[in-house]
Structure formats: C-alpha cells, structure tokens
Amino acid sequence: MRTGLTVAGVLAVLLLALVHVTNGRARPSTAHTCSATDRQFIETARTNMTALELWSEQYQSGDASGKDVEGQARSASKIMRGTGPTDSALQQARLLVIGMLSEYAKAVQQQERHRDSGPHVYRAYRLANFAHSVLVRAQEPLTHLGCDVSPLL
After folding, report:
1. What is the pTM of this model?
2. Of 1, 83, 91, 104, which residue has the fewest beta carbons closer than 10 angstroms?
3. If we measure between CA atoms, which residue out of 71, 39, 40 comes closest to residue 56?
4. Which residue segment(s) compose the domain that 101 sits in?
5. How many Cα atoms within 13 Å fall on the side-chain side of residue 89?
6. What are the pLDDT digits (tens) for 79-128?
7. How many domains does the chain have?
C-alpha cells in the first residue's frame, strides 16, 4: 500500500510538473522549424509519456511491478535518445525529457529497494518543469508552423 502511494505521488508530481508553467528560464530560440523529425519527436514523446502513465497506474493497482515501471521508464528514455528534432526548443526539451525519465526510473528503483527516492523525484520534477517551460514558450511559433506540442503540455 505504501509503495503504491509513493509511486502515485511520484507520478502526480511528474504530471503536475508538465501541467504547470514555471518561472524557469529557457534560452529563447530565434527561429523555429517544424520538420518531419520534429513531428516524429512530438509523437514519440506523447506515446512514451502515455505508456509510462499507464504502467504507473498498473503499478499502483498491483498489476505491474516496480521493475516493470522502471524498465518502461528506461526504455522510454532510450527511445527518446533515438529521436532527432531539428527545432532548437524541441532539442532542448528532448534532453530534459530524457533526464526526467532517467531520474524517474531511478526513483522507482530506489523505492523498490526501500531507499530514499526523494532526490530522484525532485530532479525528475525539476527537469519536467524546465521541459514544460521550454515547450510553452515554443508552442505558439511551432503551432503556426504545423507542429502541435499541446499533447506534451
């Protein structure tokens, strides 16, 4: 029960980080692009975040193990490393999301070992906040070019 609540808390923190705008500073981009690889990055990120959310829900209900969720987060991180967006904001978001997924995997691993997952949760939360800020700032120009980042917000 305690493990499920902790993972639920971790997931809630990560999801809130993607929902709320922060005061973090991101380097402004002077020009945006909306290439096929940019659209592929957006779809890949959306798919992997949705999958991770589902795995986390299954973990909370007892239908998946912590090892399953950790593995999904590591797999999502590896998949995101394989993307290559050309837009500078999406490149920055990619690096932040990879870091967030890695820290989330470490948090679940620590939780499963009955150790303090707090530092990893904190880093995952901060990285998610920064990624959200980057995407919010780039949303309007990318939308005008045909890249809708709203599924990632």
Report:
1. 0.79
2. 1
3. 71
4. 2-10+35-152
5. 28
6. 999 999 999 999 999 999 999 999 999 999 999 999 999 999 999 999 99
7. 1
